[in-house]
């Protein structure tokens, strides 16, 4: 093989390597920017506050974010912690949200396909379990 060919192959391989490293770096930076909470989020509520274990819900969703956080703000919840995100206005067992299957009630309603998602109706203590801060 001639030297020019070998040199051009080395340059090409170097360029491909640099491009690959740039893409990996961009992915790492992007992933680092989206930090999922590792401790329970606590939403204000009555009679007690409501802790939310993000890690267990991500596991239940098969590691996917989209079931709760669709792009463009069309999901059940924003990706940034928001006290008002639950959109529960009270009432008899959060009846409006349960009937509309919005917020937590999107999964926590009578549905045998949602394994592990207890029904919110009549289960106040399962959610409202943290003394108000």
Short description:
The chain is mainly alpha-helical and 133 residues long.
What does this structure look like?
By secondary structure, this protein is mainly alpha-helical. It has 2 domains: 1-33; 41-127, no CATH class. The chain contains 4 helices and 2 strands. It has helices spanning 3-33, 54-60, 95-100, 124-127, and strands at residues 41-43, 50-52. It has a two-stranded antiparallel ribbon. The longest helix is centred in the N-terminal third of the chain and has 31 residues, at 3-33. The protein is elongated, with a radius of gyration of 23 Å. The relative contact order is 0.12. The model has no long low-confidence stretch (mean pLDDT 78).
Question: Mind sketching the topology for me?
Answer:
Layout (H helix, E strand, L loop, with lengths): L2 H31 L7 E3 L6 E3 L1 H7 L34 H6 L23 H4 L6
Antiparallel strand pairs: 1-2
């Amino acid at each position: 093989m001639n030297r020019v060919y070998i040199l051009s192959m080395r340059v090409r391989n170097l360029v491909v390597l640099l491009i690959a490293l740039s893409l990996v770096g961009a992915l790492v930076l992007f992933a680092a920017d989206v930090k999922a909470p590792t401790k329970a989020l606590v939403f204000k509520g009555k009679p007690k506050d409501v802790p939310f274990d993000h890690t267990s819900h991500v596991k239940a969703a098969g590691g996917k974010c989209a079931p709760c956080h669709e792009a463009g703000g069309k999901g059940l919840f924003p990706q940034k912690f928001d006290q008002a995100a639950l959109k529960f206005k009270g009432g008899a067992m959060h009846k409006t949200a349960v009937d509309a299957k919005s917020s937590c009630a999107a999964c926590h309603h009578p549905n045998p396909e949602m394994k592990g998602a207890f029904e919110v109706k009549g289960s106040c203590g399962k959610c409202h379990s943290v003394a108000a801060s």
